[in-house]
Amino acid sequence: MPARKTTAIVQLKVRMREDLRRRLEREADRREDSINNEVVRRLEGSFERDADQDLASEISELRAENARLFKIMDEQFAQLKRRDELLKNAFDIMEAMRTSPLVRAAMGVLPGFPEPAQENPKKGETK
């Protein structure tokens, strides 16, 4: 049997309780529509609601993942900031030591310490 087109209208027999048929009939009358159209509208609506619920669930999961990733980024940023502060402090200490007269004197006295690099004199100047 060849496959039907998705736009084809097909007939379907459905068994249901009488009270459900009456409810469908009342709603169809209230809407001034046929029971068939009421059944189709309700079936399509149930699929749309399922799709909406799936989408809402997916969005909720993505938001949770997004929040988790932002938390990780915040933690990594805080670590980088702490490292930056430590490096700045270390640099400040090294600079203070480099310019300290006591350290400079000790470097000249202790073996294995090279003299601090002298700044290059400007052109035309002599040491």
Summarize the structure.
By secondary structure, this protein is mostly helical. It has three helices and no strands.
Structure report:
This protein is mostly helical and 127 residues long. It has one domain. It has three helices and no strands. It is rod-shaped. It starts with 17 loop residues before the first helix and ends in an 18-residue tail after the last helix. The relative contact order is 0.03.
How many domain regions? 1
Report on the biggest sheet. none
| Helix-strand makeup class | mainly alpha
Query: Helix count?
Result: 3
Roughly how many Å apart are the termini?
A: 103 Å
Helical residue percent? 55-70%
Secondary-structure element string: HHH
Poorly predicted residue ranges: none
How much β-strand is present in the residues?
under 5%
What is the alpha-carbon Rg in Å? 40 Å
The count of strands amounts to 0
Mean pLDDT rating: 87
List key phrases describing it:
mainly alpha
Secondary-structure topology with pairs:
Elements lengths: L17 H13 L4 H65 L1 H9 L18
Helix pairs in contact: 1-2
